[in-house]
Amino acid sequence: MANIKSAKKRVLVNQTKRENNLPKKSVMKSSVKKAIIEPSVETVKEANKRIDKALKSGIITKNKAARAKSRIAKKLNNK
Q1: Phi, psi of 33 (to 5 degrees)
Q2: Which residues, other chains included, contact 28 with Cβ-Cβ below 8 Å and sequence gap of 6+?
Q3: Which of 16, 35, 53, 69 is placed for a possible disulfide with 47 were both Cys, Cβ 3.0 to 4.6 Å?
Q4: Are 24 and 55 in contact (CB under 8 A)?
Q5: What residue numbers bound the domain in which 42 lies?
């Protein structure tokens, strides 16, 4: 554990942010997996929505979002 007051605060803030982001990331990953396994217009639309929300809140990077969207779109088009 850190000794400096500001470092202690950073640890607590990072822990809180992680706890808030984990469920959102989990939901996003589940919807992406579902869209890859069963590609349909509805599942792909839902996965894209979850990816965009995760991107907007800073959970994933822009490049990761684009890569995930591309993969699920490719699965839908090759169905």
Answers
A1: -60, -40
A2: 47, 50, 51, 53, 54, 59, 60
A3: 35
A4: no
A5: 5-77
Sign of CA dihedral 34, 74, 28, 26: positive
- The DSSP secondary-structure symbol of 2 reads -
Q: What CATH number is given to the structural domain containing 9?
A: 1.20.58.110
- What DSSP designation does 1 have? -
- Tracing tokens 């500001």 back to the chain, one arrives at 6
- The domain tally of the chain equals 1
Predicted confidence (pLDDT) at residue 79 exceeds the cutoff of 80:
no
Distance CA 21, CA 4 (A): 26
For 3-29, what is each residue's pLDDT tens digit? Answer: 899 999 999 999 999 999 999 999 999
Kindly report, residue by residue over 28-75, the tens digit of the pLDDT: 999 999 999 999 999 999 999 999 999 999 999 999 999 999 999 999
d(CA 50, CA 35): 11
